[in-house]
Amino acid sequence: MNEEQEKWEEDVFLSMKGSRRARPQSALLAKIEDQLARSSTKVVPLRQWRFAVAATILILLVNSMALYTYYYQENYSDMAVVDHFCQSFIRSYQIYE
Amino acid sequence: MIQSIASGDNKAFHLLYDLYAEIIFNTALSYVKNKEEAEDITQDVFIKICKYAASFKGKSSVKTWIYRIVVNTSLNHLKKKTRFTIYKHSLSDSQSIDFVHPGVLLENKENSIALYKAMDCLSDHQKTAFILSYIEDLPRQEVADIMTISLKAVESLLQRAKKNMRLELEKMYPYRRKVKK
Does the reported pTM lie above 0.90? Predict the structure, then answer.
C-alpha cells in the first residue's frame, strides 16, 4: 500500500476530529417530558395481569379441592357412623355365639 | 443528580438534559446516521434514565452509565431496523444515502462521508469502539469502562476496525489507489 493512500485513510479516520456536536430539536425536551408524564399514569403490565389470573385460578382450585375434601370426608364419616351402628346392632344380636 | 431524578425532581432532570442531550444525540447519530431516528433514540434514553435512576448504584460514573444506555439503545434500534428492512427487501435510507454530519468541518466533509460509509462494514463491538474513540473522542480507558472490557481489548477492536475499514475504503474508492500509484 502506498504512503499517500495510507495517509488518506488515516485522514478519513480522523475526519470527525474538531467537529461540532449536533444539537437535537429544541422541542425534544417537551416531547420527553410529555412522554414521561404519560408513562407515570400507572399502567398495569401484561405480566402482572397474567400473574393475577394465575393466582385467581390457583385460589379457586385450592378452594374447590378443600370443599370437595370436606364434603367427601363428611359423607365418609356418615357412612362410618352407619357402619359402626350396623356392626354394633348385629353384634348385639349374636345370640348364637 | 441521578438520585434527585429518581425522586422526581424536575430541575435535576432539566440539568441532566442540558448536560447530556448533545452527547446522547451525537452518539446515536453516529450509529443511525439519521436525525429523526437519533432524536427517537435520545428520547428513549432519557425515558430509560428516569426509569432506572433508582437502580443506579454509582459503581461507574454517570457519564459512563449514560453512554452504556445510548450504545445499547442505538444497537437495538439498528437490529430492529435491519429486521424490518429484511422484510421490505430494500436497503435502508442510511445505507443508500451519503450521510453528512451537521457539525463536521467543511474541509473534512468528503472524508467524513467516506468514514460513515466504511463504518457500515464493522461489527457492533468494533463500531462501538470506533465511534467512542474516534468520533466521541473519549480516552481509551473510558471506552473500556463503557464497553466493560479491558484496555487491551479496546485496542485490539480498534485495530481490527481500522483494518476492515481500510479494506472497505479501498473497495469503495478503488480509483484513488490507481491514481496515486
Answer: no
